[in-house]
Amino acid sequence: MRVRIDLDACQGHSRCALTYPEIFDVDDDAKAFVHVENIPPEWEDKALMAIANCPERAISMDE
């Protein structure tokens, strides 16, 4: 699975990076980015929780 962040939608709340730093980080402009190319199966629940908790709905996941 791959996680993507819509940088146009991301407002820099950093919830994803604060909650799941093993998957997400924030750049100097306070925009989130994914630092794991492919999410291992055991982290899929974490990615889904990050998607659900993003106030801007800027995170998505695909295969």
From TrEMBL:
Keyword Iron tagged: yes
Keywords: 3Fe-4S, Electron transport, Iron, Iron-sulfur, Metal-binding, Transport
Cofactor(s), names only, from the UniProt record: [3Fe-4S] cluster
InterPro entries: Fe-S_cluster_ET
Gene3D superfamilies: 3.30.70.20
Key word Plastid present: no
Molecular-function GO terms, alphabetical: 3 iron, 4 sulfur cluster binding; metal ion binding
Transmembrane segments: none
PANTHER family linked: FERREDOXIN
Protein name in the entry: Ferredoxin
